[in-house]
Amino acid sequence: MDDDFDDSLDDALYNQWLNFSSSGQWDRARGVLGKLLTRDPDAAWLHTQMGHTLYQLGEYKDAEVHFKRSIVLDPDEAEPFQGLTYLYLAMNRAGVAEDHCRKALQLDPDDIDNWILMVHLCVHFEDLLQARQCLARAEAIAPRDTRLIALRTEVGAIEKGAAKLTPKQQIEGYEKILRQQPENESAHYNIGRLKLYETKDYQGAEASFRRALAIDPADKSNQKALIAALRKRDPVLKVLWSPFNFGMGIMTLYAKLWDMKWPIIFLIFTWEPLLIGGVALWLVFYVLFWPMAKAYEALTLVEVNKKMGRITIYRGPMARLHRLPFAARIGIFAAIFAAFWGTISFLYFKGGHQDKILNWTASIVVGGVILLIVFGLVLWLRDEIRNIGRRKKNAQIPTGTPPSISQAGVPTPPPLPTTSPILPTAKDERKDD
User: Which CATH architecture has domain 1-143+403-424?
Assistant: First the structure.
């Protein structure tokens, strides 16, 4: 009777873990794994799953411990070596990652993920010959895998001479993926990246980033990419970022002229005022314009996500702000803008003007800003106190050795993040297992 109860409990917890991991609820998945700790301390595959879960939570040191424990228990299994490869890439330890990737290939040469990882490592070490060889091995294993189309495109982008793919050819490669998988988020992202930085098609870049953000609205790289495109198109952002762009333009022009060494006399006599002017312009931008630009960008992303019905991704003390109508949020931005510039005006004019009305108005503005800051700090402190309580509660659940469950029907590990730490400019194609 007790054995039947134990088996049913294992099955229930196993199903909970499977549901949480497949839906990306990594905190809950870790909690379920923690509840199973006392049942069997020698389950190598569950150590591997704990490593994957902690990796997703960004707890790399603990993930490393579990992957290594899995290797000790079952040294002939390739999966923990693959997990350590992803982990060390995220920790910017490419040399150690390569060692573990080669070990994973030695144990399981038919796993396409190991060959894809090896291609990325070869590209990182600028070994294009071996990158092509590893890519050919991967294509022999799974010729129709769309990740290989993206990988071939990425390798072609860094080739030399006639073999190098043009931006248009790279876009065509990613569009080929979309014909097979219209909801491929990384393909939309990479198309937008190429249109933004290579072909200067800002409207097309914005459309691609919006599609990628609709698929994965919580992805920080999608959000930053969309903002980068909007800075080229949105009139408010263009105005707010104009001092920065002007300063960058001056510095870029000066660098090009210096490389050309012409006219050298002009450069010798103008480098100092150009440098001082550029630095002063950037200081003015970061003091006076940058806060407003970031506030407008934050409101822009909130509106984008609200239109897509993904507003629930926001958490924290300002969550209610994200549910306000767009007009209300623009009003808040305008009030912040007026308060900010009112404060600057007050600090600038208070020494030379004694106008009571001006000082009275500016004092109200400054007082309002202080109240907003205090209110925000109170909300942040309340949220931190709640988080401390949650952490204490989670700390009561052990996170050591998870138990074993019957190996029958063991699922593949949860999908790892899609952003390649080796090629930060392009999103890596990795299928959801």
Answer: Alpha Horseshoe (1.25)
